[in-house]
């Protein structure tokens, strides 16, 4: 009887110890940290941006090509005489970025200027890993950069958007350096003046993704210096093959009115 009581005692002690060691998981929940997206455009002015238009020094917003109006950053040609005269322009955010997600909405509006190139109809772009606008030549067409080309539908036919163009740069596709200037994405065509959601994920000089309406439509790797340039050719030739790890972000004007809004960035 004594041995039986002792056994009961030992079992009770083990049960107590086991209960104490068992973690309490009833109220344990995974806490999601909210993403800290920052707004690059305040919807009111261009104070955080620098304009550079071909034929004009950095900081000169020729004929108010870029304006802040109705909560949008607009490329407009209201003060032009209906001729573009190859005055390609870009507006650059003030800060350099390397690893980030950029998202915005865009749409094409109105009519293209009369002497704009046929390929520039409903054509704009978001340039990433751009060179410093202060170093761009007076008559330079485009910054050394990676261009996420934005195209609007022409009413008929297919015309994908969030394509890739490479002014003064190369990328790697299918494990090979791709030296063509432009490459089509797998996106749908968006006709008219509808708003389109664009997101770009940039991972330094490793991988870059283009997304339209939350769908990945283009992916490539290893952005680097390379290819034809229209300014300071010898300088960039010496840098050929050098990885593009960071740079400015800019929005493009190419002769067709376009609007951008909700321009936000998440650093990774």
Automatic annotation (TrEMBL):
Domain 3-keto-alpha-glucoside-1,2-lyase/3-keto-2-hydroxy-glucal hydratase: 36-265
A Pfam short name: 3keto-disac_hyd
A GO MF term: hydrolase activity
Record protein name field: DUF1080 domain-containing protein
